[in-house]
């Protein structure tokens, strides 16, 4: 997979990330995470996130489409160990 160097919003100089996916990559959230710091994404158990970047340091960048609770679409970094990869079909059926 192509890799590039990306400067993240957490003050780390550079991190190695995978940035190109042949198909959209989705993850289901396993645990709530409060991303109250700038650049971080707050996630709730059961949310579906489209993965944008996967950093080698364990932080992933993703987009959440919002929810029936009125949460707006948002993008940010979240800990990868709080999610599990799911198929596109699972993600679509959950939205």
From TrEMBL:
GO terms for biological process: cell division. Keywords: Cell cycle, Cell division, SH3 domain. It comes from the Eukaryota. GO terms for cellular component: cytoplasm. One of its GO terms (molecular function) is guanyl-nucleotide exchange factor activity. The keyword Amino-acid biosynthesis does not apply. InterPro entries: SH3-like_dom_sf, SH3_domain. SUPFAM superfamilies: SH3-domain (SSF50044). Residues 22-88 form the SH3 domain. This is Putative cell division control protein.
